Fold these 2 entries.
Entry 1:
Amino acid sequence: MTGFYPGLTQKITDIPDHEASYFIDLNINTNTIHQLPDNVWSIKYFDAINTLDFLPVTIYDWKRQEVGHYKLSKSYGLNYYNIEIDFLKVEQVYFAEAIDEAGVTHHTAFSLKGPPTEDKPNAEIIVNPMNLSCESFTDNLIEFYVILSGGRTPYQVQWFVLNEQMSDFLYLPRLEKIDGPGKGMSVTVDATPAYHVMAQIEDACGNKLNKVVSVNCQKEEKVYHSIFIEPLSKTMGAVNKQ
């Protein structure tokens, strides 16, 4: 047996009405497997007999092996309990049986939920060329903005504009807060290529994501009036999937 608790588990008094519905009802026998968010088993039991001052409860695992036993203190009427069960394993089904003074068996099933699936943020940098040239001393103007989805809002987005070697900032980093999914504020760059624009995204749960685009001229073919914008996979010493 994993856990045996011969002591009396005390009932709870003064349960607020809005919390009472979260307690599993031992008087209702169903085939439902109740999902517990943690190792606290919250139950309620209506005692209509009250010839004993406790209700024996036995917990079995899926192999029908006894893993725990409790004695719940009770009185006539509705009784509430929060029972901490330290032996629960994630996603394993447990069965509880209680036998009252009249010999009636009350049973229920429950399982400890696993950790939630992590929903990570997604991001895409959108490039809007406004005035482009690879010639020196020529005005260049490109607008960048990020489209966000997934993760937990709000997001924090920090923009970096880096030189060709990704060793220095061309502009001071800029931080913005975005309350929900969709388009973030734009960043306009008037530098002459080549350079890199990176957005570092962090959601409310601390999940982080880097996105980078590279702006460069096709110097090999001496076509200095053409500018090429492409995604990068390397970001400031870290490799990220784009």
Note: Residues 220-242 have pLDDT under 50 and may be disordered.
Entry 2:
Amino acid sequence: MTVIDDNPKGTPIMSRNASDIRIESAGDTSIFSFKVSVFGVPDAEVGQFVPLNGEVAFRMKEILSALPIRWHSQEYLPDDYTTWTLPKVMIHESSDSDSLWESYVIVGGIDESHAADIPGFYASHWLTWRPQISDTFRWGKEYLSLVKESGILHDGRQIQLRYVYARLYMAMTGEKLVRCCNLYTGSVPRMLVVNVSYSNMKRLAEAAGYDDEILAYDVWVRNEFSDGTVEDNVAPRRYIVKRDDCNVTEFVFLNALMAFDTVYAYGTVKRNLSHETVTFSSDGVEQELENSSVESWEVNTGHIGSERMMSLWIDFLASAERYVCGRDGRLSRIVVEEADSESQVRALGHATFTFHYAEKPAGRYYEDKELDTYSYDTAEFQK
């Protein structure tokens, strides 16, 4: 029995770039099971395959696109940084407990012209298509993710250690360098998620003794190779800290590379309320039995000035996991009801969409405060 696999060896495959797996010279009575493991949950069988003339073909793109591999929770978004176990898929012959083939998976893909070097992509890219230079806000939520695994080859050299650094551009003290985290290698590929929000950069700066206003910051990865050389790698992301703007709405979503991304809408926001009343009549008097209402918000993205930014918004609208970020930093899951986008090649575009909260808010809360004594002139009333 022979397993034919043209996917990159020893590195997570990308579902949209995956090549088919073929088994040849299989026994006539063989049955093959396709299994998936997510978050360390015991292997779950998702299908069985029977050979025809001794051969079985696993159409990986179709199989992986149908698997329910999602994070489905912002609980996995860290205050500092964290790592996630990647989904794992396996092929077993039913009579054998050992897998014939297995691989970790990134649910997503890149352009086919670059798919031949997926290990190189992991070594030199963050899992985002967001523009390299982006605006952010003091209250904003920002995350960067990359594939963390031992033995990644880059330019023919083996990476032993990886570090995430930030260069802070400060108002009075100039440029300062801080280390965000160490990427310790391990035997199992994982996804690293780093909180690169302004609040976390401010915390790192203060911990290093830099008490100054941050105007902008770059985030990148530094690699240490097995031959002892050190090299900055993974193109830096630059964040420009903008003044707080009450007209900006932030959304966090699961992007087309299975990582959380951020996008800001600068256009108008309209609040809509749809209402339905259920009534009954008794003795000729109509009574209200139930009132139900759904609040929704119509959001305009504002001008979208590049094809890359339009692609990011398309990723957002295609995502099945989206959140709106409140000014208190809380993420609330949303459902997009409808969307409409319009853009011309080499011209400004925009998109409009309507969303409602996935979970109806439990209630409202407003903080009252002590009032000063009301001041007025009694003489005005004595005239």
Note: The radius of gyration is 26 Å.
